[in-house]
Amino acid sequence: MEEFKGPFRRFAIHGDTRATGKDMNGKNWSKLCKDCGIIDGKGITLTDVDIVFSKVKNKSARTITYSQFKEALEELARKRFRDKSSEDAAQEVYRMIEGKSPVIAGVTVKPTRTVASPTVSRLTDTTKFTGSHKERFDETGRGKGKAGRVEVVDTSGYVSGYKHAGSYEKKIQKPPQKPM
């Protein structure tokens, strides 16, 4: 059973820079059970995982050792695979954990793209904006910057809506004189 020290150590140090890998806290125990598929939502829930953790750890401790980890896995195995013997159930759970590492979700996939949730997508969809908020974006959905937030005053001297704005300078230019 020493081959499960690798996954135990990887999950034990996950997210904690001070962890030594000799013991595992409850958060990482729950993560191991989720990431390895031990929690199925029917036979074993997150609550069951927390109860087993509290049951096997020492009364005053906040972590479990490797031997307590194996004991907790065996208890979950009996609950998850009720139709199998204790040894067969334990082997099934050990196969689920074998070679696994913590899954990191919601982190940047590529340097230019992040994984967005449907809620964020809905809230940032500029086609759904109305009223004054709609004025802050152009037709393509890009922000107009300060022009979208502040009313920019036109100081050209023309009335807004005048069709021939900017044509006065052309009219007053004198045509070039022909030499005589």
TrEMBL record:
Organism field? Sinocyclocheilus rhinocerous
Q: Which GO terms describe its cellular component?
A: cytoplasm; microtubule
Q: Which GO terms describe its biological process?
A: microtubule bundle formation; microtubule polymerization; positive regulation of protein polymerization
Decide whether keyword Cytoplasm is in the record.
yes
Q: Molecular function terms in GO for this entry?
A: tubulin binding
Does Cytoplasm count among this protein's keywords? yes
Regions of compositional bias (Basic and acidic residues) in chain numbering: 132-149
Q: What is this protein called?
A: Tubulin polymerization promoting protein
UniProt record similarity statement:
Belongs to the TPPP family.
Major place of localization?
A: cytoplasm
UniProt keywords, alphabetically: Cytoplasm
InterPro entries according to UniProt: EF-hand-dom_pair, TPP/p25
Database matches in Pfam families: p25-alpha (PF05517)
Q: Using the UniProt annotation, give all residue ranges assigned to the region (Disordered).
A: 130-149
Where does it reside?
Answer: Cytoplasm
User: Where, by residue number, does the polypeptide cross the bilayer?
Assistant: none
